[in-house]
Amino acid sequence: MPPTLGSNLPGATAPDAIRNFCIIAHIDHGKSTLADRMLQLTEVVDPRLMRAQYLDRMDIERERGITIKSQAVRMPWTIREGERTGEQAVLNMIDTPGHVDFTYEVSRSLAACEGAVLLVDAAQGIEAQTLANLYLAMENNLTVIPVLNKIDLPAAQPEKYAEELAHLIGCQPEDCLRVSGKTGIGVPHLLDEIVRQLPAPVGDASAPARAMIFDSVYDIYRGVVTYVRVIDGRIEARERIKMMSTGAVHELLELGVISPEPVKSQAIGVGEVGYLITGVKDVRQSRVGDTITINNRPAKTALGGYKDPKPMVYSGLYPLDGSDYPDLREALDKLKLNDAALVYEPESSAALGFGFRVGFLGLLHLEIIRERLEREFGLELISTAPNVVYRVIMEDGKEVTVTNPSEYPTGKIGEVHEPTVRATVLTPNDYVGAVMELCQGRRGSLQGMDYLSADRVELRYTMPLGEIIFDFFDQLKSRTKGYASLDYEPSGEQAADLVKVDILLQGEAVDAFSAIVHKEKAYAYGTMIAAKLRELIPRQQFEVPIQAAVGSRVIARETIRAIRKDVLAKCYGGDISRKRKLLEKQKEGKKRMKMVGRVEVPQEAFIAALSTSESPDAKKK
Amino acid sequence: MAQLPDGDPVPDDGSLPAGAHEIAGKRGFGVYLHVPFCASRCGYCDFNTYTPGELGGADIDGYLEAVKRELKLAKETIAPGQVRTVFVGGGTPTMLTPGQLGGLLDEIDKTWGLEKGAEVTTEANPESVTPDSLKQLRRLGFTRISLGMQSAASNVLRILERQHRPGRAPQAATEAREAGFKHVNLDLIYGTPGESKEDFELSLEKATGAGVDHISAYSLIVEDGTRLARQVQKGEIPQPDDDVAADRYLAAEEHLSAKGFQWYEVSNWATSPQAQCQHNLLYWRGGDWWGLGPGAHSHYGGVRWWNVKHPKRYAERLGQGKSPGLAREILTAEQRETEDVLLQTRLREGLDTSTVDVSKVEPGLLEISEGRATLTLRGRLLADAVVRSLLT
Ligand SMILES: Nc1nc2c(ncn2[C@@H]2O[C@H](COP(=O)(O)OP(=O)(O)O)[C@@H](O)[C@H]2O)c(=O)[nH]1
Ligand code: SF4
Ligand SMILES: [Mg+2]
User: Fold this and answer.
1) B166 and B74 in one domain?
2) What is the tens place of the pLDDT at every residue in B7-16?
3) CA-to-CA distance for A306 and A212, rounded, in angstroms?
4) In this structure, are B214 and B360 located in the same domain?
5) What's the rounded Cα separation, in Å, for the pair A145 and A178?
6) Given A58, A372, A620, B298, which residue has the most CB atoms within 10 angstroms?
7) Structural domain tally of chain B?
């Protein structure tokens, strides 16, 4: 059965009948499940083909329960109850990525909508991520429909959280809809309300076409698939389109809507959401935020808001086995096709060999890329501790951008600037003290504090991003027994008193362990790494001093005592074969050792030392 | 019990590849006889040995018969010339009577002939020898006795679960000398959890005081699968500490050299070159030997093989006219060189410096003189590391 688009066909739908909306929800509050119900109710999915989490395509996305790439689904809906019963509409549901690293993508998805469904788990209440996205939606002037989900749960407290929501967005508790994505209860009513409450798109149908790209996905069979929202004018199949940021012109090979499988169309007009394919092979040629127009009747000005994605966090990625370097390059090249924010360049480390310095939007982005490299490309990797980008201004006025601590300039430094974020933490009342202590310890400055309800508090901080990427989230979770939630977005930069700490083994600096830290934390970082390494590096035939140094000043020191005994006492008849085999195995093992000067460091030691947990035994406790 | 290495199958007739016969014969020939019986099992022991309850129907008579059959097979397989050394080990060889031991020695003599002045050693349990049995052994052709003493401290013997009384081993050594044995060895174990510095010094004192000409000292190894390993795992007994073992080794060297002993292999000391164990030297110098008995290992011309472990299976195979060999490995030239380095490094006579690159070794671990590289005292404690440096 082909998907039913109803009587409103793409390119022939009046803007009045269109509702573009997104769902804002914290992870696990039920966005994907609710979307499933909507697909069923609007009958765009053949019941026999329905499966859970229909829209979550990527494996990794399904397993980790997060949405990386947004989707846009066109669904016909006819109002079922109350006033306006029988009115036909077209709903475009735009699924936004859920995590802080993709804030810019979220903001573009929101910009493609007129309204948002704020979906909150009725047993959990609002979380920091929801809050951050809600603020974004409000900034974009979206109409917000508050919805409590999972009301089938015995633990649901819809009254309590309706109060909280009403307080937050300034409505009445009765205005909060109640649904269960699981049982489907309340979902038809929600769809009716979407048509009734959300404004229809407004645009100039006769003006030159302008469509905003809100997503761009590489597909090995079809090349780049670009998702757009038409603001003005109309895009017709087989026209030549133009990217307004670069002026590049492309043939339009295919145009259509997603419902929820692609359906080719002749045109899409004002307010409509669809996809287009031009044959480009790299998402960089079709970037999120850019404006598309028609080449033979181009618009004069682009839609606002286009930004180049800027990497915020860098890490060195090295293959465990040096001979995998070409494979790593190839894998990164492939991932890059689908990820406009991924940047990398080759670098080499005395300790780790050849690898890449890779820039990411944030820690989650880093983790996802790393995991995909390991899982989809079968690579074993060492990644260096992530660092942010520093802007170092030398006394002579020269400016150096540092993306790798080992490249920190050595000359006379005037000022160092580090990136900052606006962080929002939501926590139960009881943990406010613990959260404040943590944030202050991370050089946060409190910007504001609000009670969302009697027992839940929102804390707003400005904080160096560098402090957040080092273990902050784990600490926050452990100090609040998992109850606090965090969201943050870039907020500029600040000058700070930063120094580079080097770690030396037998007097030789190990580039992979260098870090840029606040002056007051240099000592703590130095002692922590030195102590970790003392545990992780096996005793050698000679004593190995480990030092942490700022410039030439040693700030911490540990010693790995020389090994005293390394001999099997017995070696008679039958022991000989065993011993030779052991030796052959050790020879293999030696290949997995990295040499730092004369010191043999097992790769496991690098991996463990570079992990962001505070100390090797912290996990055991 | 210690895991046997993997290997290739041994042909049923036990025959060796032709190449082996060409390589063999250049470094002497010895015979090892394994006696796989013990009265009870010591907690740390992972040797191929069986208490009466574990024999599954095998018995000493069947064992004696099977060994004779293996000797017959050996005679058909190799032509090594005369036997330079014989070593009877276990298990507890003295679970056999002197007459039975002497009988097997006779068979070996009849098979290949013993060289004049051949060294003939048997291991013995201090509790299972008497002045009389020792005299018999001497008369039957044994020239050397090796006694398992382990320690003079009763708390250490208890942890090791050795059955003898603390004073018995030195006493048995004295009895052996009185029975006419010029060469007597005492085995010591150091680094047992709970053993104090004084305990070990007492052991050294008692051992050298017994007038023996050879002492072996081994650090205690917790072998997988032993009762000791389980106790350590459960935390009932602490893990032996390598730094403590190093201290004990230094104490042994100090004490033994003061008493006129000189090391000639990492774990072996003797009062004169004649007192050195020729049989073990043959192992370390890459010589050939035939290992008789269950689980025994052999080496002949670059082929190593090992017998099935259980006495019952061993007797069965030989009863069917088949080689008791379980598996073997035919060493490549490179593997033979590796073995030469790993074995010779352990000896005081050391390595020929023209065959290895001594500059790969950390300074202070080797002493070079007259074209030979010998481990220093610190080097002896790091012998395996030295071997790794030389070979990797
Ligand atoms: N009881 C109940 N569970 C739900 C409901 N909606 C979602 N869930 C469950 O909540 C979990 C997270 O749902 P999911 O849709 O993946 O959330 P998402 O991360 O926001 O996409 C899943 O285990 C769902 O089965 C609901 O209405 N009731
Ligand atoms: S006497 Fe020797 S072979 Fe027998 S169980 Fe004890 S240690 Fe093992
Ligand atoms: Mg989801």
Assistant:
1) yes
2) 899 999 999 9
3) 9
4) no
5) 11
6) B298
7) 2
| DSSP states of A421-482 | EEEEEEEEGGGHHHHHHHHHHTT-EEEEEEEEETTEEEEEEEEEHHHHTTTHHHHHHHHTTT
The residue nearest atom 6 of ligand 2, judged by CA position, is: B42
Q: Are residues B386 and B277 in the same domain?
A: no
CA dihedral of residues B218, B220, B226, B231 (deg, nearest 10): 170
Alpha helix stretches (DSSP H) within A212-264: none
* C-alpha torsion sign, points B38, B43, B44, B47: positive
Answer whether residue B54 is part of any domain. yes
Residue of A nearest to B305 (CA): A574
Structure tokens at A230: 């038409």
Query: What is the average per-residue pLDDT within B22-39?
Result: 93
Residue B50 DSSP code: B
pTM of the model: 0.70
Q: B365 vs A541: CB contact, 8 Å cut-off?
A: yes
Which residues on B lie below 8 Å from A581 (Cβ)?
5
**Is position B264 within any domain?**
yes
CATH of the domain at B191: 3.20.20.70
Contact A555, A515 (CB under 8 A): no
The answer to whether A89 touches A274, Cβ cutoff 8 Å, is: no
Residue B347 gets which letter from DSSP? B
> Looking at the structure, do residues B279 and B166 belong to the same domain, yes or no?
yes
Integer Cα distance of B382 and B301 in angstroms: 30
> In terms of CA atoms, which chain B residue is nearest residue A599?
B362
For residue A133, with 0-12 CB atoms within 10 Å meaning exposed, 13-18 middle and 19 or more buried, which class applies?
buried
Q: Are B290 and B310 in contact (CB under 8 A)?
A: no
Does residue B143 form part of some domain?
yes
Chain segment B291-329, per-residue pLDDT in tens:
999 999 999 999 999 999 999 999 999 999 999 999 999
pLDDT tens, residue by residue, A22-32: 999 888 999 98
Q: Which of B6, B34, B242 to mutate to test the interface with A (most CBs of A within 10 A)?
A: B242
Asked if residue A254 has pLDDT above 50, the reply is yes
Contact A583 B388 (CB under 8 A): yes
Instruction: Please report how many Cα atoms fall inside a 13 Å half-sphere around the Cα of residue A587, on the Cβ side.
Output: 11
Residues of A with CB under 8 A from a CB of B: 541-542, 563-574, 576-581, 583-584, 586-587, 590
Ligand 1 atom nearest residue A65's Cα = 19
What per-residue confidence (pLDDT) applies to A61?
Answer: 46
Mean pLDDT on B356-364 = 94
Q: Is the dihedral of CA A549, A550, A551, A555 positive or negative?
A: negative
Specify the 3-state DSSP secondary structure of A95. Answer: strand
Does B107 map to a domain? Answer: yes
Hey, are the CB atoms on B381 and A570 less than 8 Å from each other? no
Whether residue A506 is predicted with pLDDT greater than 90 in this model: the reply is yes
ipTM: 0.90
Q: Cα(first)–Cα(last) distance of chain B, in Å?
A: 30
Q: The domain containing residue B85 runs over which residues?
A: 18-284
Place of tokens 């090892």: B32
Decide if pLDDT at A2 tops 60: no
Separation between Cα atoms, residue B131 and residue B146, nearest integer Å: 15
Beta bridge partners of B328: B8, B305
The string of pLDDT tens digits covering residues A544-571 is: 999 999 999 999 999 999 999 999 888 8
Put the strands of the sheet holding A177-178 in their side by side order.
A71-78, A88-95, A18-25, A115-121, A143-149, A177-178
Nearest C-alpha neighbor of A572 from the set B304, B200, B255? B304
Ligand 2 neighbours, Cβ below 6 Å, are B 38, 41-42, 45, 47, 49, 90-92, 148
Residue A587 to residue B219, Cβ atoms within 8 A: no
CA distance A21 to A111: 10
